[in-house]
Design goal:
The complex is a heterodimer of chains A (about 240) and B (about 500).
Chain A lengths: L1 H29 L15 H14 L1 H6 L1 H21 L9 H30 L1 H6 L2 H22 L5 H12 L10 H16 L7 H4 L4 H4 L12 H6 L2
Chain B lengths: L2 H11 L22 H6 L10 H15 L1 H9 L11 H6 L6 H16 L1 H5 L1 H4 L6 H10 L8 H5 L6 H14 L5 H12 L8 H19 L14 E4 L10 H15 L3 E2 L17 H18 L3 E4 L3 H15 L13 E2 H10 L15 E3 L3 H6 L8 H13 L30 H7 L1 H14 L3 E4 L2 H10 L10 E3 H8 L8 H10 L1
Helix pairs in contact in B: 3-4, 3-11, 6-11, 14-23, 15-16, 17-19, 19-23
The chains are: A mainly alpha (about 240), B mainly alpha (about 500).
């Protein structure tokens, strides 16, 4: 019974994530930027902009300039999350790709740095007056959700082992639109359901910063207004 | 050293010291509201419309569809706090609503309530709120405590630019009939007279003739400041403050001397006698475009080949970043030169070519530092390389002065602090805010005064110059401690045929 409910929820959440984010990206992509507003000094070529964006999303360059503590915790969390996600691919593929296998030990321990980073960010929300002032309940909830996912994952890996082979079989079945048997360990259930919750809120929350950063005109525009005329379609209408 | 002295030193050194939160410190501060006549000239309703709520929300929706930055920035903020200590108005006032993210949230909270799933169904969870009259009052107050300087956007991991949100908020307010008097009255003047001051062509011509006389009295050389001369090569567009305010006017004399020495054929235009474009400040594309088109028309009517802009920060942003968009394409101008060009690009070029005879020692009575103006630093460029907007002014200053020192590196270049009067806030009814907003910059200046004996600060923005000449006395400096970069050029330049004191001495010795 639980296996079926989870399976249906898994499909629904995946659909909401993909369609929700897809619609937002579509909207961002279609909305024009009427003026050239890169924060300067800015690259003067497209290749330069790609590099700027790369540094922004891989190293968090602007955040590093701003505040070393937020950078430290934020970067630690995000990079650990990537490793953890890569490691988790093994539960959805068979045979396991070599680079996923390679990431396995790193991804395992990245679970700790991920939770540590989250706790650091959370501590700032509570301890730093300015950050406390701008914090909404949803900010705490998202942190709680991520910590829950991370902590339950670590517990399963290092303390209360679950029948991971059965879990993997269940997931492989899901991808082939078959519903198998999901182990009912409480920690596993917490882990899997909170992951679904994260997928569902992704397109309707601040998690939209993930696609958003790529569409930020201050970061993705080329600094060449004198050389190349930039004109939004609605602005072109004014010239008629 | 005694503890007391230590405290003072500490106070001076930390220009970027973060204050404790003082909620409500600047609450209720409001610049004068525009009168119906000022509003209507700009195509806005004269006073608050009865269905303001619907109109405001409709405008918000419209902006989200027309401006990607507005849409993305309202969605993407994660409340990380990176920007919270970056605004000079926050540093100067401690009011938490002057933290960039909190300022954005004043509008974001309403956007969420009406346009997002979470805000519609779980407003308390995501800090969404209804649009009420109190919210409107708050918008008017705090969106006029932002100078749109973009310092926060440098430090945001997503590049969220509070200036974009402030402009959008002002645009919404204008569309429901609540405009700001200072900006909107000035835009009206540009549209009817051609400049912010409402200086008519006759008065302008008289002023320029007086200036020509001053230069001749001073140097013995006749240097022209032409107005409306058809067939000139270069149209100079400069902020109208350059025609009468100190130290701006000394900058204008500097441009004239540079043009004179390079043998340029140039002219000012009475029709486009204003580089400033306050349409930017109120976030109105249409008004900004209308003002920009005056420059195009002047260039066409006078038949010039090039357009050069004088020292003005936001004007250079509009010129460099937007002019081509708003009033282009400029295929009727000489394509061998940048369109438009900054006067400092022109002067630096002339210095490199050796066209100017400069005597640096003529600025030896000054020990200088340089204030990067926000719009030049973070919203434009000079020259071919990114960062030219930092190097070229410094190169020129170092070519004409011997004594130059930089302020704290966290307060210059892309991290520069706003003067406190930008973005349409340069009005007496906001004087308290202006003084407080200038304090981080003033502290950085006090530090180099203490360390290196800096006496004067150079700037290339009309608003910075006016603002500093007003607020510097509050921080222990004379009002003329702020100087134009071209004023320094003007001091150092030796015009062809001009007799210098040395020449006179030599003649005396010979005789």
């Amino acid at each position: 019974m639980l296996s079926v409910i989870y399976a249906l929820s898994f499909y629904a959440a995946t659909l909401m994530l993909v369609v929700g984010v897809g619609l937002k990206v579509w909207k961002y992509a279609r909305t024009p930027a009427p003026l050239k507003i890169p924060t300067t000094p800015a690259p003067t070529t497209t290749a330069g902009v790609v590099m700027r964006m790369f540094r922004e999303v891989v190293f968090f360059e602007s955040l590093f300039k701003s505040n070393k503590w937020i950078w430290l915790f934020g970067w630690m969390f995000h990079m650990s999350l990537w490793l953890v996600l890569v490691r988790h691919l093994r539960y959805f593929i068979d045979p396991v790709w070599f680079w996923v296998a390679f990431a396995q030990p790193y991804g395992t321990y990245a679970g700790f740095t991920m939770v540590l980073g989250l706790l650091g960010l959370w501590a700032r929300r509570i301890l730093v007056e300015r950050v406390r002032y701008i914090t909404n309940p949803s900010d705490h909830l998202i942190l709680a959700l991520l910590v829950l996912i991370g902590a339950s994952g670590l517990l399963m890996r290092f303390v209360y082992r679950v029948d991971i082979v059965s879990v993997k079989l269940y997931m492989l079945d899901l991808l082939r639109l078959r519903i198998g048997e999901l182990p009912s360990d409480p920690i596993l259930q917490v882990h899997l359901w909170s992951a679904l919750a994260l997928m569902v809120i992704f397109p309707i929350s601040k998690l939209l910063h993930v696609p958003g950063v790529f569409f930020s005109p201050t970061r993705n525009q080329v600094d060449n207004p004198r050389e190349k005329r930039h004109l939004a379609p609605w602005a072109a209408q004014l010239e008629k | 050293m005694a503890d007391g002295n230590n405290d003072i030193e500490q106070q001076i050194r930390d220009a970027l010291d973060v204050p404790c939160l003082k909620p409500g410190a600047m609450e209720g501060l409001k610049p004068f509201v525009a009168a119906p006549e000022h509003q209507e000239k700009l195509g806005f309703p004269g006073e608050l419309v009865p269905d303001w709520k619907e109109k405001a929300l409709a405008k918000m929706k419209d902006l989200a569809e027309k401006n990607r930055a507005f849409q993305v920035y309202l969605d993407a903020c994660v409340k990380c706090g990176a920007c919270t200590d970056k605004c000079h108005y926050f540093l100067g006032t401690g009011d938490p609503k002057n933290m960039p993210v909190a300022r954005q949230d004043l509008l974001r909270s309403v956007y969420r309530r009406y346009f997002t799933f979470a805000g519609k169904y779980f407003p308390w969870l995501v800090g969404a709120r209804d649009l009420t009259e109190e919210v409107l009052e708050e918008w008017y107050s705090y969106y006029h405590q932002c100078s749109e300087c973009r310092r926060c956007s440098v430090f945001c991991p997503y590049g969220i630019d509070t200036a974009e949100i402030t402009m959008a908020a002002r645009e919404i307010l204008d569309h429901i009939g609540v405009g700001q008097k200072y900006s909107n009255e000035i835009i009206g003047k540009v549209k009817s007279v051609g400049n912010n001051l409402g200086l008519n062509p006759k008065a302008l011509r008289a002023t320029l003739e007086d200036l020509e006389e001053d230069i001749e009295d001073d140097t013995g050389i006749s240097v022209r400041i032409p107005l409306d001369e058809k067939g000139a090569d270069i149209l100079l567009v400069t902020p109208s403050a350059d025609f009468f305010a100190e130290p701006h006017i000394d900058g204008l004399i500097g441009y004239a001397k540079v043009f004179h020495e390079t043998g340029a054929s140039w002219t000012l235009s009475s029709y486009a006698s204003e580089a400033a474009n306050f349409g930017l400040f109120i976030g109105s594309y249409e008004n900004m475009r209308e003002i920009a088109l005056r420059i195009r028309k002047a260039a066409e009517d006078l038949g010039v080949k090039r357009i050069i802009f004088g020292e003005c920060g936001h004007a250079w942003r509009v010129a460099y970043s937007f002019l081509n968009t708003l009033a282009g394409p400029f295929d009727f101008l000489d394509q061998n030169y940048p369109i438009p060009q900054h006067i400092l690009e022109y002067t630096w070029d002339a210095i490199q070519k050796g066209q100017l005879k400069l005597d640096k020692s003529r600025n030896d009575h000054l020990t200088l530092t340089y204030h990067d103006s926000c719009n030049v630093a973070r919203a434009s460029r000079m020259g071919d390389m990114p960062g030219g907007q930092f190097e070229i002014p410094r190169n020129v200053i170092k070519a004409v002065c011997n004594n130059f020192y930089e302020m704290d590196r966290d307060t210059i270049r892309e991290s520069t602090l706003c003067c406190g009067g930008g973005g349409g806030l340069l009005t007496d009814d906001l004087m308290d805010l202006r003084i407080k907003g200038a304090s981080p910059r003033m502290k950085a200046l006090q530090q180099v005064t203490e360390d290196h004996g800096v006496t004067h600060m150079a700037a290339i923005c009309a608003i910075c110059k006016t603002q500093f000449s007003k607020v510097m006395p509050k921080y222990g400096y004379d009002m003329d401690s702020i100087v134009s970069v071209h004023q320094l050029v003007s001091n150092a330049i030796i015009l062809t045929g001009q007799e210098t004191e040395e020449d006179e001495q030599n003649e005396e010795e010979a005789a």
